[in-house]
Every structure is written in C-alpha cells, then in structure tokens.
Write a structure and sequence with these properties.
Elements lengths: L5 H12 L3 E5 L3 E5 L5 E7 L7 H8 L3 E6 L5 H16 L2 E8 L8 E5 L5 H14 L5 E5 L15 H5 L3 E8 L12 H26 L17 H15 L3 H5 L4 H10 L17 H9 L9 H22 L4 H11 L4 H13 L12 E2 L1 H16 L9 E4 L5 E4 L2 E5 L4 E2 H23 L5 H4 L5 H14 L5 H18 L4 H11 L4 H12 L9 H14 L17 H9 L18 H10 L8
Parallel strand pairs: 3-4, 3-5, 5-8, 6-7, 10-12
Antiparallel strand pairs: 1-2, 2-4, 6-8, 9-13, 11-12
C-alpha cells in the first residue's frame, strides 16, 4: 500500500470493523461515516468551485456522505473499493449522487436510474417526495448509461455494476431556491432540504429492509444519534415559553358556579357573564422570543419539524388568549383544535338518538364530594409509585375551576364537584391514569415537548382517556351522551347560535338536565368559542380504529403525543433519543386484557353503548 493509498486503507479498515470514521482532505473534500451503513450520499462540487449550500447542508443530515471537488480528487478510484467493501459486508450498497442540473430542468427533482434493480427504490423515493411536499415536482428518468452530473466522469462503468450488488441513483436538482442574482430564497431552500432529507431517510430504511440481510428496525439510520446543544437549547426555550401561561386555566371561567346560579335565577334566558384570569404575559414579547429561535439551523428534519410545529401552536395559543371574548378567539380555536366534520356530527347525533336521556331517579348509587375523590386519587398515585418512586401528582381542591382538570401533572378538583362512586373510579383512570401518567412519562424523556404536549395532542389524549373509562367499566350511556353533546354544541356554536339557544337545544331536544346542559355549553362558549370539546368523541373513534388495525396501545403512553407523530416517535425510539414509557397505568395491566380485545373486536363507538 503506497503512502497515497493509506487514507483509503484506513477507511476500508473502519468499514470492516464497523468503526465510525471522519477523513478530511484539506481544500479537496471529506468522507464522513458517522455510522458504517451500506449507503452513501455523494456530492461532487463542480469544477467551477461553486458549492451548492442546499446540497452541502443535505449531506450533513446523512450518516455516510462524501463531499469533494470534482476536479481535485479522483473519487471514481476511491468509491469502487469502498462500495465493494460495503456490499460484501451488508449484502448490497446504495449510492445516491446529488447535483444541480446545469440547464434548467422541467421538474424540481429528477431521479436518474440506469439499473433495473433500482427502479422500485426510485418509485418509493418519488412517492415520498410527493407526500412530503406537494409544491415540489418530481419525476424518474431512465438513463441508458450510469447516471452522473454533466461534465463529470461516471463513478462506475455499467458492466462493472452488474454483478457487484452496488446500486447507483442520481438526483438532479432544479435550484430555483436561488433568484436571478443567485441570492438564496431561504424558505424555498428549507423546503427542498427538509423534503429530501426525510424522503432519503425513508429510502435508506426501505433499502436496508428489502435489499440487505440486515434487520432494518435494529439500525439507527437517521441523522444525529443524540440531541445536539442547539436542539436542547430550543427545546428548553419552547418549554420556558409554554410554562409562562396555562392555556386551559386562562380560558376557564373563574365564576362558573356563580354564573350557573345566576343563569338559573334568570330562568335560562340571559347569557351569563364569565370572568377570566388576567392576562399576565405580553403576546408580542412571547412571539418575538419564539421566532428568534434558530430552528432553521437544525439539519435533522425530524427535530426541526417537531420544534417548528410546537412554535406555531404556541403562537396561535398566545394569540387566542389575547383575543379572549372577541370573535377572533373562535378563528384561532379552529386553527388549533379544528372543526367538526359531517361524519363526527352525525356520529354524535346518532349516539344521542339511540340512547336514553340521563336518569337521576336512581338513589341507590353512592355519591361522593371533592375530598373523597381526592382521597381516591392519592390512593391511585401510591399504586403507580410502586413502578417508579419518582412518580407524583399534586392534588388540590380549588374554588376557581369547574369540575376537574389536570394541569402540568397536578390534579385540580372544584370544591363544588360531586359524582357517583362508580363514575369516580373511571374518572381516576381518565385524569390520573392517562393525563398525569403521560405527563410523567413525557417528563422522563429528554425533550420537554413530550410532557408539555406536542401540537394537537389533545385528540389522541382525550380519546385514550375516555377509552380508559370504558376499560375499567365506567363509561356509561350518560357519559357518552355528554361527549356526543359537546360535538353538537360546538357545531351549533359554529353555525352562529347563541349560548341560550344551544342550552335550550340540549334541554328540550336531547333531554339533558339544565345543570348538565349548562356545563356542556359553558365549556364550548368559554373564551369566545372553544372547539376543543369536539375532540373527545373524535379521539375515541380514531383510537378504536387504530386498535382495530392491530396497533400497539402501549406506545401511546410515551408522553402527550398525537397519532400522526407515531412514525416520529418510532424513529426517535429507534435512535435511542426517546425511551419507553416509565409508568404503565392500571387499565393496561393484564387483568384488563379481555376488555381491550373486546374493543378491538367491536371496532365501533356505537357498540360501546349499553
């Protein structure tokens, strides 16, 4: 081995020993193997010396990449032994070479293939790019020869690749993220980079699964294997801003009980006046701090997406708080919590039509007050502490809330609250077993986001909480009717009906007692119109379908997550950034296994009614 070839030998030895290696050739290029994997991202800087920032940044997101100057380094001489070694080690090797199209091409992204065996991978990548960014156009070009950038030599001859188990795909980019003066258009550049990074991540996973003898799920194939200082900094900053205000407390009336007594005194015709906690944060300052966060500097697209998503939600929520009592509050609620679909409304209506109105004539049930309920909650906390001594849940009886509410792992109970003993057992699983447990499990994660809640977590969280009531035998028809009535109330509010009109509808048409109807309508009209309460029914319906499809319910206990985050959760678990749930609630213990099987079999909210 000559002195000239010693660096290549070092790289080959690292591959054989599966040792990560970084090798830099000054002023020429660098070989980076953060992990020895059977795929390499390649970028040859053209002879003009002009490096494309988007492609160079994209290379930083990959576990294995080669970036070098085309005219200063004979990459074709080095890539052959490297690719051969990887193919021998793993059963196959995939090379992805990316370049800027010299002439403006019709599509934003063109996938070049010269081997039949790689066509399924190209089609898979094409689908993923379309899914990630509808605004980017992509096509597949079948080349007669091995794909390569213009004015550069091919890395391999076509015959050479036939029996080597080496696959090569070219990706040419229409760099319209530069304007006519070659200035960068940052938002468009980010769209290209993040779309390609996510799509290539899935492509490499699919390649491992189909083309190699590796167990793909055991491979840590994505981006950074640990949180970078910048990620931790942004996570802490988002958590800090989130903790400065409690959204639900800020939109919950301070005088709910007094408002009910006055409403009753006024014979249910005068709209009650609700009082709210004073606004103690400046929305403009919060937003300034949020948008000063350097999320655009995070190259890992998964983490960048999570942080950007949370920032957007906090922005919308702080705007809603500033708009309490105004028409714009409802517009913000539709942004954050969504609308009522026709299917959801019809399902709610069907539940109310097929069940009898609540019957309060049964005096045999044992009723309890806030002190007894708090005692039951403390007993449940002690039960859960057997799994982890750090588990805790402050329990407070308060004058300034209505009903019960979990706030950052603390259970708050209204001093006016009363319920039946059977209902209390179910509500303990709803509040402590779901809301508090997922908060604690989220706190055990290295990212604050999973305890505070990812954007839109409420649907899955409330669906799981309501389903837990059914699992322990406490989801009766009265409870289902309340959940359905909340959907009806949200829809009627959105149609422009007043508080009193909606109250009258629930009492006269659906047979609700006045106090129950008031509580339902108050929750929906608070703040100026909160659509969140429609998520309970939507959440449990989505969750029943999720279980029917055979998915794992234990994964939902990771923290406060939403359903479409599950691929992200699995990705972060695989990369060992997240850890499995620390606490399992009572309703997931083996004694309730038959109940879970029952839910999967029934596969319908209507079959849960009595």
């Amino acid at each position: 081995m000559t002195e000239k070839n010693k660096p290549l030998l070092r790289i080959l030895n690292a591959i054989n020993k599966r040792n990560p290696i970084h090798y830099q050739i000054p002023n020429v290029g660098k070989f980076i193997f953060n992990k020895i994997v059977p795929y390499i991202f390649i970028y040859r800087i053209p002879a003009s010396g002009k490096k494309d920032k988007m492609i160079a940044d994209l290379a930083k997101t990959e576990n294995a990449s080669i970036v070098c100057k085309a005219d200063s380094f004979p990459l074709e001489e080095w890539i052959m032994p490297i690719a051969e070694n990887l193919a021998q080690e793993f059963g196959a090797c995939l090379l992805i070479e990316v370049w800027v199209a010299e002439k403006p091409q019709k599509h934003d992204v063109m996938l070049h293939i010269g081997q039949k065996d790689i066509l399924p991978l190209a089609q898979y990548l094409e689908r993923n790019i379309r899914m990630e960014a509808l605004e980017l156009s992509v096509t597949i070009e079948k080349d007669m020869n091995i794909p390569k950038p213009d004015q550069m030599p091919a890395l391999f001859g076509k015959k050479y690749l036939q029996n080597k188990q080496i696959l090569l795909m070219g990706i040419s980019i229409n760099d319209r993220y530069h304007d006519h003066e070659e200035n960068i258009l940052p938002l468009l550049m980010r769209t290209f980079r993040e779309t390609l990074a996510k799509s290539l991540s899935r492509l490499f996973f699919e390649f491992l699964r189909v083309y190699t003898h590796l167990n793909a799920t055991a491979q840590k194939i994505n981006f950074q294997q640990e949180l970078t200082p910048l990620m931790n900094e942004i996570d802490q900053a988002l958590a800090q801003e989130s903790k400065k205000f409690d959204f639900l407390l800020m939109v919950t009336p301070l005088n709910a009980h007094e408002a009910w007594l006055q409403f009753k005194k006024d014979k249910y015709w005068k709209v009650p006046k609700f009082l709210y906690r004073p606004m103690h944060v400046d929305p403009d300052l919060v937003k300034r701090r949020l948008y000063n966060l350097r999320i655009e500097d995070i190259y890992d697209p998964t983490m960048a997406y999570i942080f950007r998503d949370k920032r957007s939600e906090l922005d919308s929520m702080i705007t809603m708080l500033a708009d309490r009592g105004k028409e714009d509050f409802l517009h913000g609620s539709l942004q954050v919590f969504g609308n009522v679909s026709e299917k959801l409304y019809n399902s709610a209506l069907a539940i109310l039509m097929m069940t009898e109105p609540e019957n309060m004539s049964n005096k045999s049930e044992e009723w309890i007050g806030p002190a007894e309920f708090a005692k039951m909650a403390r007993e449940e906390v002690r039960f859960l502490q057997q799994q982890n001594a750090e588990f805790n849940c402050p329990i407070r009886i308060r004058e300034d809330i209505s009903g019960v509410m979990v706030n950052r792992g603390a259970l708050n109970i209204s001093k006016e609250y009363k319920l039946t003993l059977n209902r209390a057992k179910a509500l303990i699983q709803h509040e402590v077993g779901t809301h508090v447990v997922t908060y604690f499990n989220g706190r055990m994660q290295p990212l604050n986001l999973f305890s505070l809640g990812v954007p839109g977590y409420e649907e899955l969280q409330e669906g799981l909480a309501v389903l837990s009531e059914y699992i322990v035998g406490g989801l009766n028809n009265n409870r289902l009717r309340i959940i359905a009535a909340r959907v009806i109330a949200v829809q009627h509010m959105l149609l422009g009906n007043s508080f009193t009109e909606c109250f009258t509808l629930l009492v006269d048409q659906f047979g609700f007692r006045p106090e129950s109807a008031f509580q339902i309508v108050m929750r929906v009209y608070r703040g100026g119109g909160l659509t969140k309460d429609a998520l309970y029914l939507k959440g449990i319906m989505e969750l029943i379908q999720y279980l029917h499809e055979g998915h794992n319910v234990h994964l939902l206990m990771m923290g406060k997550i939403r359903k479409d985050y599950l691929p992200i959760i699995k990705d972060l678990l695989q990369r060992e950034i997240l850890i499995p749930p620390a606490i399992t609630p009572r309703y997931l213990f083996p004694e309730y296994l038959e109940k879970w099987k029952e839910v999967k079999t029934k596969a319908s909210i209507f079959k849960l009614t009595h």
